[in-house]
Amino acid sequence: MKTMIQFLGTSDAQGVPRMLCDCAVCRSPQNKRSRPSIFLHSRTNILVDVSPDFRQQFIDCNLSIPKILLLTHAHNDHIAGLGDLADLCFWQKSKLTIISPQNVLDEVKQKYPYLNSSRNVYFLPKDHVVLDDMFISFHLVNHGNNGTSYGIKFTSKDRQWSYVSDVICMTSDQLKPFYHLDLLILGASYWDVSDYPHQHKRSIYDVREALQVKEMVMPQKMILTHMSHDIDISKRVLPEGVFFGRDGWKVMI
After folding, report:
1. How far apart are CA 89 and CA 188, in angstroms?
2. Is the peptide bond before 29 cis (omega within 30 degrees of 0)?
3. Can you give the CATH number for the domain in which 63 is found?
4. 243 - beta bridge partners?
5. What is the dihedral angle through the alpha carbons of 178, 179, 181, 187, rounded to the nearest 10 degrees?
């Protein structure tokens, strides 16, 4: 069964344009990006992460209410839309099941203690699950200065693809699940971070490093997401088979 992936947001944690920034990228409508998330248009309708911009993303993309929320980790730019999503599910009498490994759900529950079955929100701690004929697995990866995150791999009868938005310096063991995919969606916040003074505090690959990852794991296609205002997608050129994500863009897998 084919799945339609829709990019709801493709920016880093600060969004593009950044607040009070007058750089050329932030002034460019072509580079307008909201915080990162994807939506799987399938029988169940699956949301991966729920950004602070979820409400506007839901309206702009004319989405259906997701039944499942998968979380890569519990940082603000990946869960801060949860209150809006929970309100939507409560008022529309729609059940929401949040799936992620136990450590992520524990942190979410601490931040949103009012979310429970009385609000139509249910927590399912799992590192793998089967949904819509897809085997979905969570794989721990380095998130640099920000600790750890999970890459999510989707495996069906004839397709394998992964969403790994917040990652840097993957070890050889961490790379193993992501070899020879049909599609790898990978976070890359800067074009080349080597000239930036804060590089020792980094938490996500730059584009140069992401392309090195591609050479190692050899996906058929790669789409970059989690991009800061350092990346002008209208001017930068990528190798064949590598693409910049765009808010609202739909990709069939």
Report:
1. 32
2. no
3. 3.60.15.10
4. 223
5. 40
CB atoms within 10 A of CB 109: 15
What domain range includes position 133?
4-252
pTM of the predicted structure, to 2 decimals = 0.97
* Helix, strand, or coil (residue 40): strand
Question: What are the pLDDT tens digits along the chain (253 aa)?
Answer: 678 999 999 999 999 999 999 999 999 999 999 999 999 999 999 999 999 999 999 999 999 999 999 999 999 999 999 999 999 999 999 999 999 999 999 999 999 999 999 999 999 999 999 999 999 999 999 999 999 999 999 999 999 999 999 999 999 999 999 999 999 999 999 999 887 766 667 999 999 999 999 999 999 999 999 999 999 999 999 999 999 999 999 999 8
Could you give the number of structural domains in the chain? 1
**Which token pair is 37?**
């998330």
Q: According to DSSP H, which parts of the chain are helical?
A: 24-27, 54-60, 76-79, 82-91, 102-111, 172-175, 207-217
Going by C-alpha positions, the residue among 222, 228, 213, 224 that lies closest to residue 170 is 213
Phi, psi dihedral angles at 70 (to 5 degrees): -100, 135
Check if the beta carbon of residue 204 is closer than 8 Å to that of residue 187: yes
Cα 17 to Cα 165, 202, 208, 229, 245, distances in angstroms: 19, 21, 22, 7, 16
